[in-house]
Model the fold of this input.
Amino acid sequence: MRLDVVTIFPEYLEPLNVSLVGKARARGQLDVRVHDLRAWTHDRHNTVDDTPYGGGPGMVMKPEPWGEALDEIIESGVGEPGDGGDGAVKLPALVVPTPSGRPFTQALAVELAERPWLVFAPARYEGIDRRVIDEYAERLDVYEISIGDYVLAGGEAAVLVITEAVARLLPGVLGNAESHRDDSFAPGAMADLLEGPVYTKPPQWRDRGIPEVLLSGHHGKIARWRRDEAFRRTSHNRPDLIERCDPAVLDKYDRELLAELGWEELPGGRFGRPGPAVEE
Ligand code: ADE
Done:
């Protein structure tokens, strides 16, 4: 997979040289190219921003440097390995991190991991002139993505988040192909539950042992315990996931545990928890 990042802070992307993404690069599984947006400016001050039309606070990123940068990067894909050599031009998907984008989820990470080429356009200031996104949306698939309901000073941290979530899904990047199976939010396997707690040696640490069942060697009991813990944690930290849970994936024991945790089966089969009584 090829990843290009256009930014005014190339050094912010240094973490892409370490750990999982760094190793995937070293092994040739990821081709990461970080570009300085200011290389596509032509004035003495390398200006990338200007005041917003219509007034208001902050600055907006100018369209010209972005247009030149994106054109050059898109053009660089022609004749690259993977363009099929059939004359069909290989095009990237454009990823624009923004707090006003669609939420980044594991499902979206899986979708992005299936693309051969992503170009990231992280903005600083109040964002990029809208015409840039509208222009490239005519030629490319554009993903405007938010990594959460908070506002960062720029999109670079979001690029790191998205890149790591995507890279670990690429074939051969994680040592153990089974590793994503039980991930929190892994589609299917654990009914969209959060992962429960994990333990390793030593068996005693500061007077704390580990749950007996994990030493039993009884695979069925261990699987049941893990599922119960996943329900407990999900119920506590993400009750919205229990509310959305497809009742068809719940067995008798799941239902008993949910009842114990205060959940009630609603008429449609979904689960809800009675809220505190409203005082009249
Ligand atoms: N840029 C600023 N805040 C952001 C967010 N929450 N997600 C993605 N990009 C951003």
